[in-house]
Amino acid sequence: MLDDQLHNPLPGEPGLLAAKLRPPLRRGLVNRPRLVQRLHEGSQRALTLVSAPAGWGKSSLLADWHDACGEKVAWLNLDPQDNDPNRFWTYVVAALRRVQPQIGERSLRALASGSHALIEGVLPSLINDVDGAGEPVVLVLDDYHVVTEPEIHRSVEHVLRWADRSLRLVLATRVDPPLPTGRWRAAGELVELRRPDLAFTDDEARRLLSQGLGLDLAEEDLTRLGRRTEGWGAGLYLAGLSMRQQDDRTAFIDAFTGTDRLVFDYLGTEVLAQQPAEVRRFLLRTSVLSRMNADLCAAVTGRSDSAAVLASVAQANGFLIVVDERQEWYRYHRLFGEMLRHELAITEPDLVAELHRRAARWFESRGAVPEAIDHALAGGDVDLAAALVAAHWTPYFNAGLLRTVERWLEALPAPCVTADARLCLARAWTLLDRGRLDAVDTWITAAQRAVTDPATVRDTAVVRAVHRFKIGNLNAAHAAARRILELGGRDGSFAATVAHIVLGLSLFWRG
Length: 511
Fold this sequence. Notes:
Elements: H1 2-7, H2 33-42, E1 47-51, H3 58-68, E2 73-77, H4 85-99, H5 105-113, H6 118-131, E3 137-142, H7 150-162, E4 167-173, H8 181-186, E5 190-194, H9 195-198, H10 202-213, H11 219-229, H12 233-243, H13 249-255, H14 261-270, H15 277-286, H16 294-301, H17 306-316, E6 320-322, E7 330-332, H18 334-347, H19 352-365, H20 369-378, H21 382-398, H22 402-411, H23 414-418, H24 421-434, H25 440-450, H26 454-470, H27 474-486, H28 494-510
Parallel strand pairs: 1-4, 1-5, 2-3, 3-4
Antiparallel strand pairs: 6-7
Helix pairs in contact: 2-3, 4-5, 5-6, 6-7, 10-12, 11-13, 16-17, 16-19, 19-20, 20-21, 21-22, 21-24, 22-24, 24-25, 24-26, 25-26, 26-27, 26-28, 27-28
């Protein structure tokens, strides 16, 4: 009887799909009481906003809450065809009538006539009916991000404004809606669940994989998988599907990226393909960046409107994550960024190196040396990378970042290093620090061959003095120290300090 009423809510009305008025059949594979409690709290507020990208478990969570709660909850699954205001509100009224059959008859008749203005002629009777129902009604609008019609947004705001005591609205969306959420937030009438809230904890991930896929992972493997997916529910589940075919689960997790076939297909279809062409291009070309702001994006993409595009993407795509308090710097979710880079390598392989070179020049101009070097290397600009390492390795070495300096040197072609005395000295100092004394002299000799200026001649003498002292050649150490002073090591300078220390120690040990 009820389904007949839904298919034909009033005589003469076109049929409605009853399936749109029920939660999805697929339920959450794990109970998440911490989030269900938040939804219970939200049902006492005017608006609950569940906003996150695809695959973060919005619909499954709401469906589980719908089944668990004792309140009257109306449900509507939205689709792009619902951007017709008449159709939208016809379905909303039908959803409300499912839990309160006595409301909405006049509104349905007005909608069917097509002769009444929505806000002035249709909604007042609906608001009055809901207000007179005797108890609040909760309405879930799932996939609200498909709504793009401004009149619908205005009408939803109107109903919430005047029915806030009798109608509780729950919106599940991938994109924050153009509603005055700030007003409701300030009034204490807004509850929000976002990507960080929906991220699976280790315990929830364990139960998801165990109950849903029969996978029992070691604690260390579960923690690593959680870091790889950053708590993304769909990513965890897709990783589990792929993992069932693997004998070595630890190795699989270590190698798991956004290029995994299931993850790549999901993100490509559900996220990337849903964006306008210009936004897709922006996402792909900025994927070479480990972090980004508007100015950097402009330098890399050549788009003067990068600030606006970045702001739009940040608002609409929860896979772009804010990383600073001023909300100027962002990064992509790890798996999403890996998927984008893989797609970029397929669609625009010849552009990848140039994008990295643009990023390198931008970071260099801002004094961000490590990132400039990394992008120069990724872009194949060996000359720029070598020049940056040669000019800036010393403070990083002195700060104890030995492995960073070694990584830079190892990434440069050997002829590039031997051609620059400063790089030869960097290699010599790293070997000294590692205690590999037998390998140091090769790089001192290489530095001598490549030296072009007095300062580098002096710096070569410094590393020679230290090396000779460490290997116990006190006479050679003493001679090298004297040479430092002859070359103009100023009092108080590092070179002069080394010279005086080596001179003193060599004299002491020689007796």
